[in-house]
Amino acid sequence: MSLVEEFFKQHDELVSKYEKYTEVFKNQGAERPAEVAKYISLSRRKNAMPSPIYLIYFDGLLNDEFLLECMDYYLENTKRKSRKAKEAREQFAERDDNSNESIILKKPSKRRVAIKEYYRERALKLGL
Fold it and tell me: Which residue ranges make up each domain of the chain?
């Protein structure tokens, strides 16, 4: 069994414990759990390993060494390697098991916060 098949086998076992497919990622602190679930299902259809950016959401749910193997497999076998994927893998490998630091949750950019506030104010003005 290939590493990709093994990952998706463990993924299926994990997801079967939850009522909704996206609950796994919501419980892990994903800002947009539906997007994470969509990308992972897209990877499954392509029979490819998901990016380390999305694999970090399985931290604490799957074996850390297995996740590192999956991340390395992705970085070795993909044509387009993003800088963020490499950074996510490095942070995952370097983090201390005792620390509560999360590599998943990062502050949103100032631009994104400003856009969110703009639309929130606009909705209030329109009475939505």
Answer: 3-126
